[in-house]
Design a protein that fits this description.
The protein has helices spanning 10-19, 35-40, 51-60, 71-76, 78-84, 98-101, 103-112, 126-133, 159-170, 239-259, 293-296, 304-313, 389-399, and strands at residues 2-7, 27-32, 42-43, 65-68, 89-90, 120-123, 140-144, 153-156, 182-186, 191-199, 204-206, 211-217, 221-232, 266-275, 278-285, 327-334, 359-362, 365-368, 371-374, 378-386. By secondary structure, the protein is α+β, with helices and mostly antiparallel strands. The longest helix is centred in the middle third of the chain and has 21 residues, at 239-259. Bound molecules: adenosine monophosphate and glycine.
């Protein structure tokens, strides 16, 4: 089959790497891709949100399956567009993507169908939101309704901080129309974990759980980022818990979406928090995670292409999805200054000096004249498998210093808490 993967991060490099191992894959194109995908597939110079050009390219190249990585094209309706042109496309429709693109929609769905989550209220008036906020005890969570590149949720430790966040979202409109509505939510406490599932709209098959690290620096200090590392599996989340979340959150959500006339097909990502009352949903995404993918997909033993086709065909009930018992740890190497301003264009050295079984997934990288240069904030995710998290972790940190570029920074504590 000829496949098109949309996106250009390490999540997409991981998908391309895995799909490339399928015996039924003939050619893979990636739009726009990066230097890493360019080594194993053919990059197309088309942005991930340029839907019409993507559709034309897919038609021109007789693409038989399109896989969408990021949320923005899904929210724009890429799956609807491709289906209307008869190009098979893996992912939810625009309406189904609302579970990620509108936090108010997701919250109303959860409340209506009794899916465990934080208590919250939604507002479209700044004055009403402020009045409500002033009656709440901190910590309080303020969330912009729409897509905000992972930056739309603020956990405020004081009234002032919460009001400031509310004003930035609704008055200064720092996230634009994504801040037309807000959620004000109770703050929950507990370990956080991501549990994703393949679903064809009826059958739900959970993947392996993973944890990601959002803050820039060790000890969860510094600003929020797109993700600085991840590991799978976390000790605190076993198979019994996976089944519990499947029964109480994932399956009821897929059923609810069908009942609401928005059948969900693709990958449903539940961001969970393990409270004393049990697991609760913090958010849903309509796609694979980044950097979770970089530690989950290496553990997938089954043919990813077959699973994706079963999702599209609605035959997931007859499909087996198998995972390795090994652990995986991934660390993001970022440009100096990220997530603030940073400089790109530095040569990256040493990618071929790591041990053979170390996985180097590219994100912001660009190839020119045989050299690979930095080209974004998050540059690479370096991942290692091991019998245990401790083994995977020591292997990844042994290899990381062999890769070098000017200003490079990475966290040194990814998965460290699993060892104590
Ligand atoms: P979200 O965009 O909903 O995934 O939120 C981003 C991050 O904010 C989560 O990963 C949590 O760390 C935190 N967060 C969101 N909602 C809550 C909540 N109700 N209670 C505590 N932390 C939260
Ligand atoms: N790791 C968070 C996300 O993919 O949204």
């Amino acid at each position: 089959m000829r496949i098109l993967v949309i996106g250009g991060g390490a999540r997409e490099h991981t998908l391309v790497w895995k799909l490339n191992q399928s015996p039924n894959v003939k050619e893979i194109y990636v739009a726009p891709g990066n230097a890493g995908t360019g080594l194993i597939a053919q990059n197309l110079d088309i942005g991930a949100t340029d839907l019409e050009t993507l559709a034309q390219a897919a038609e021109g190249k007789n693409i038989e399956l399109t896989v969408v990585g990021p949320e923005v094209p899904l929210a724009q309706g890429i799956v609807d567009l491709f289906h209307s042109r008869r190009i098979p496309c893996f992912g939810p429709t625009r309406e189904a993507t609302k579970i990620e693109s509108s936090k108010v929609f997701a919250k109303e769905l959860m409340h209506k169908y009794g899916i465990p989550c934080a208590q919250s209220r939604s507002f479209s008036s700044f004055d009403e939101a402020r009045a409500y906020l002033q009656r709440q005890q901190p910590p309080i969570v303020v969330k912009a309704d729409g897509l905000a590149a992972g930056k739309g949720s603020i956990v405020a430790q004081s009234q002032e901080e919460a009001l400031e966040a509310l004003s930035e979202i609704m008055e200064k409109r720092i996230f634009g129309a994504a801040g037309d509505q807000v959620l004000i939510e109770e703050c929950l406490e507990g370990n956080e974990v991501s549990l994703l599932a393949f679903t064809d709209g009826k059958t739900v098959i959970p993947m392996v759980p993973a944890c990601d690290y959002k803050r820039a620096f060790d000890g969860d200090q510094g600003p929020n980022t797109g993700g600085m590392g991840s590991y799978s599996p976390p000790k605190f989340f076993d198979e019994v818990m996976t089944n519990r979340v499947k029964d109480t959150i994932l399956e009821p959500t897929v059923e609810a979406m069908a009942k609401e006339g928005k059948p969900f097909k693709g990958v449903l990502y539940a961001g969970l928090i393990m409270t004393l009352e049990g697991p609760k949903a913090l958010e849903f995404n309509a796609r694979f995670g980044d950097p979770e993918n970089q530690v989950m997909i290496p553990r997938l033993k089954s043919d990813l292409l077959e699973v994706m086709l079963a999702v599209i065909d609605g035959t997931l009930d007859r499909t087996k999805v198998e995972w390795s018992n090994e652990a995986c740890v991934g660390v993001v190497m970022a440009s100096g200054g990220y997530p603030g301003s940073y400089t790109t264009g530095f040569p990256i050295e040493g990618c071929d000096e790591v041990d053979n079984d170390i996985l180097v997934f590219h994100a912001g990288t660009k190839a020119k004249g045989g050299t690979i240069y930095t080209d974004g904030g998050r540059v690479l995710t370096v991942a290692a498998m091991g019998k245990t998290i401790a083994e995977a972790r020591s292997r990844v940190y042994l290899n990381l210093p062999r890769i070098r570029f000017e200003g490079c920074h990475y966290r040194t504590d990814i998965a460290a808490r699993e060892q104590s």
